[in-house]
UniProtKB/TrEMBL annotation:
<protein>
    <submittedName>
        <fullName>Uncharacterized protein</fullName>
    </submittedName>
</protein>
Length: 183
């Protein structure tokens, strides 16, 4: 396998393509972000699998006769609406979690990490937080007593432990987590 990254000299790639392999096997050659002016039909491609890898969309007409695959980035669902509902003790958090699970399933560990962040922010808002965040945290903080925040943190840690130990299934854990905040 030979990998060329963007910015490599075209003559180096052509030299590698023209070189006969000492092994009977086909080589895999990957060229990341080749120059846009490159014309694929002029390349001496023999005895190898040749992949052009782009981190942007390309004109597929330019590569007719070749297989073109797109792997677009997934749009990440924001966790902040869920955190806002939890911080406001709003039972709509159950619906928000369900909506999030449809767009980003298997994201429970990320949600737990962000819940820990929420709880720490409610105890002490980061100094670097903007005014909007400070006001929002102050409003949400009024929904909890300090002891309650400590108990929520402890209970969230327990849920995390039970998930990782296999003692609690994900749907049960998510229900328990939301239920802690909406009691």
């Amino acid at each position: 396998m030979v990998i060329f990254e963007g910015g490599v000299n075209i003559s180096d790639v052509l030299g590698e393509l023209a070189t006969v392999s000492l092994l009977d096997e086909n080589r895999l050659i990957i060229w990341e972000n080749s120059p846009k002016e490159l014309t694929i039909y002029k390349l001496p491609i023999t005895n190898c699998q040749f992949i052009l890898w782009f981190d942007y969309e390309v004109d597929i007409k330019k590569y007719s006769g070749y297989e073109v695959f797109f792997f677009p980035e997934e749009k990440e669902a924001s966790v902040f609406p869920l955190l806002d509902l939890l911080g406001n003790r709003d039972s709509l958090a159950f619906l928000e979690l369900e909506k999030r699970n449809r767009t980003s399933p298997n994201d429970t560990q990320y949600i737990l990490t962000m819940v820990f962040y929420l709880l720490r922010s409610l105890v002490v808002t980061p100094k670097t937080a903007g005014d909007f965040i400070k006001k929002k945290n102050e409003k949400m903080r009024s929904n909890f007593h300090k002891d309650e925040l400590i108990n929520l943190y402890k209970s969230t840690l327990e849920i995390d432990f039970k998930i990782k130990s296999g003692l609690l299934e994900i749907p049960q854990a998510e229900f328990s987590l939301i239920n802690l905040f909406t009691k």
